[in-house]
Design goal:
alpha+beta; 408 residues
């Protein structure tokens, strides 16, 4: 390589070094510029966060809290004062009730908008109120706490049921039917016999039950808790009585079918008119299937209980155990079964003055929640407001053979 070529190569290398230095300077300036922009943006973000702190985390799904009313813990006191403190929703419900009672058009509109106007007039009560009325009703009832209760999603509810009548097949020794199912041993090479269970159909229809009660203007002016407790206890106790009456004695026409009016139940003819003798109750006990014994109870009136107490004076030995305290009702047994005294049955000598029943075989259907409305017109001159409760339900014996009654 000659001198000129060497000088030219050196010159080219210098030019390349200069260009690289220029490029490095440009990159450095660009990085510095970007760093400044980023710093300014971060300063703005930190300032915004400082001025407006976050109230909740975006990575945490906050669950809505539901305020519940404070209930009385003492079971005995709770019978008279279920609510100790009302939830905001219950407070609003009581305000709406008072607004309706006073004829406050704005208050009634708010009630209809917030709870939904129903076909019967009025509005659906909060779930807490509905549950507490049902609790009151159940604790004071005879049939409902022992029956099978269904929530009806439609006005008509139906289900298949087995025919529990026991029959005897004389053609096949040892064969029995239970619930329509035929059990037998065909033998080692015996031929199978086709059998078919006997099914019926049970249908419950949502009948409308209406209850009315009056409250004085002084009570309406009282505290929200007192008014809520008053309505719960009154509606609950009233429902318990009226439902029991219909579950025992109802005709089945636009109302529940009562036990003593149902077809297919065991009916025993009494030995002596207007009396209850040991032969009568032993006949009822015999008529009830063995599978129904475990959950069965005796139901009768005070006059009927007196007849049972007099059996001992007639020289008839019975297993009747009496308990001294009456605070929780008549806690006594007869022939090994609980004896429940009620005034919802007919007088001694009438059909159904004493009942032996497995109440778990009585079916009850409830359709929706309670509805409440009020009127200031019916009792205006007495300074009273009438409250109306609407409940839709039905009931009937699902397996009639689980019940036995004494007839005339």
């Amino acid at each position: 390589m000659n001198k000129k070529e060497l000088e030219k190569e050196v010159e080219e290398e210098k030019d390349e070094e200069v260009e690289e230095e220029i490029e490095e300077e440009d990159d450095s300036e660009e990085v510095e510029k970007l760093s400044n922009i980023l710093e300014i943006k971060l300063d703005k973000v930190f300032k915004a966060i400082k001025e407006n702190p976050a109230t909740k985390s975006y990575n945490y799904k906050e669950e809505a809290t539901i305020d519940k009313s404070v209930m009385e813990a003492d079971p005995y006191v709770r019978k008279f004062r279920p609510f100790v403190k009302l939830s905001p929703k219950m407070e609003q419900f009581v305000k709406q009730v008072k607004a309706m009672a006073k004829g406050d058009a704005i208050g009634m509109q708010k009630a209809a908008l917030s709870e939904g106007d129903d076909s019967a007039g009025g509005f659906t009560v909060p779930e807490e109120f509905n549950s507490e009325v049902i609790r009151y009703e159940t604790e004071n009832s005879i049939v409902r706490p022992r029956a099978r209760v269904f929530n009806m999603t439609r006005d008509r509810w139906s289900a298949p049921k087995l025919d529990q009548n026991t029959t005897t097949d004389t053609a096949n020794t040892g064969a029995t039917h239970f619930g329509g199912i035929y059990f037998y041993y065909p033998g080692e090479s015996g031929e199978k016999t086709e059998t078919e269970p006997r099914f019926g159909r049970l249908t419950l229809v949502a009948n409308k039950l209406i209850g009315l009660t009056a409250a004085t203007d002084e009570l309406l002016e009282d505290s929200a808790i007192n008014l809520a407790n008053f309505l719960v206890s009154l509606f609950g106790e009233g429902l318990a009585y009226f439902e029991d009456y219909k579950f025992l004695r109802g005709t089945g026409h636009s109302q529940p079918l009562g036990i003593i009016n149902a077809d297919g139940i065991n009916v025993v003819t009494r030995d002596t008119s207007s009396r209850i003798f040991l032969e009568d109750v032993l006949g009822m006990e015999k008529a009830l299937p063995t599978w129904a014994d475990r959950n069965s109870v005796w139901l009768t009136t005070k006059a009927g209980r007196e007849q049972l107490l007099l059996l001992g004076n007639q020289g008839q030995t019975v297993n009747l155990q009496l308990i001294d305290t009456l605070r929780d009702g008549y806690a006594q047994t007869f022939l090994g079964r609980p004896l429940i005294v009620t005034d919802k049955l007919p007088s001694v000598g009438s059909v159904g003055d004493i009942v032996l029943a497995d109440l778990s075989k009585y079916y009850i259907g409830d359709r929706g929640s309670l509805q409440v409305a009020s009127s200031i017109h019916d009792r205006f001159r007495y300074d009273e407001t009438v409250f109306r409760l609407v409940k839709r339900h039905d009931g009937q014996p699902a397996i009639p053979s689980a019940f036995a009654v004494l007839r005339q």
